[in-house]
Amino acid sequence: MRITKLSAGNIIEASCTRCRATLNHTIVAMVGEKVVRVECNTCHGVHNYRGPVEKKEKTSSQAAPKKPSVPRQPKKDPGISEMEEWEALKPTFDLTQATPYDMDRKYRANELINHSTFGLGIVKTNIPPKKMEVLFELGKKLLRCQ
Whose CA is closest to 10, among 44, 43, 38? Predict the structure, then answer.
């Protein structure tokens, strides 16, 4: 309970905008009985008066309900899925139908090609302009084409 009247020069608790804490401040300006400006006794910053901030505790009704914890499923490695896809397609390959890779030629999806470095591959998609995605035993590669 306050017995003395507040006036400029008195010390009051206020929320400091610089320190971001409730600290002692010196009253700098008042309008009537209302404190308007204060100076922080710690950082000496002058700012508008903000009353001390009180932390509110959350009650059980305000707290967000917790979701039941479910163990996360590990993501499938893209390299493994490409290898599985390669193994599934390998028996369908007709090696006599494989065309030698030439970057100045057009290729269709599902066409079998023979690359000098990567070996046998199957064209998955054409990506304009002048690119295609090819599945090799080592994984997918982006190659130039016409």
Answer: 38
